[in-house]
Design brief:
148 residues
Length: 148
C-alpha cells in the first residue's frame, strides 16, 4: 500500500510540474551593439530633447485641440514626441532592434485610475440620488456650523 501511495504522489507531482516553453532568442550582433551605442542612443537622446522642446512649443495648440472630447491631446502628443524616443533611448535593451520599443506587458501593467469626480463624490459623499436632498460635506473632526 505504501508503494502504491508513493507512486500516486510521484505521478501527481510530475503531472503538475510546469514545462518551460522555448522562446526564440534573437542573436545580438556585436557590430549592431557598437552601432547602437555610438549612433542610435545619441540620436535618440537628441530626438527626446527636440521632442520635449516641440511639446512645450506646441502646447498652446494642444490645449486648443484638447477642448472637445476625449480631452487626451496632451497625452497623445507627449507619448509621440517625448515617451517614444525616451523609451527607445533609455528603456530598450542594448542591441534590441525593435522600433518603437514597447516594454513587455507582463512587467508593466497600466494602472486603472478613478475619475476625479468619482473620487470627490466618495470622499465628500456628494453623490445625490434622485429624490434625495443634498447633504453638505463633512470635514473630519470639524462640526457643521448652525445658523440661529
Amino acid at each position: 500500500m505504501k508503494k502504491l501511495t508513493g507512486f500516486f504522489i510521484l505521478v501527481s507531482i510530475i503531472s503538475c510540474s510546469t514545462v518551460a516553453h522555448s522562446q526564440d532568442v534573437e542573436e545580438v550582433r556585436p557590430g549592431f551593439v557598437l552601432l547602437d551605442v555610438l549612433l542610435y542612443r545619441p540620436v535618440g537622446l537628441a530626438a527626446t530633447i527636440i521632442g520635449t522642446g516641440l511639446y512645450i512649443g506646441i502646447s498652446p495648440l494642444t490645449a486648443l485641440a484638447s477642448i472637445p472630447e476625449p480631452h487626451d491631446a496632451f497625452v497623445k502628443t507627449g507619448k509621440i514626441l517625448i515617451l517614444l524616443p525616451a523609451n527607445y533611448t533609455f528603456v530598450r535593451p542594448l542591441g534590441d532592434r525593435s522600433f518603437p520599443y514597447r516594454p513587455p506587458q507582463d512587467k508593466h501593467r497600466p494602472v486603472e485610475r478613478q475619475s476625479d469626480a468619482e473620487t470627490y463624490n466618495e470622499t465628500y459623499n456628494m453623490a445625490v440620488k434622485p429624490g434625495q436632498r443634498p447633504v453638505p460635506p463633512k470635514a473630519p473632526g470639524v462640526p457643521l456650523l448652525r445658523h440661529p
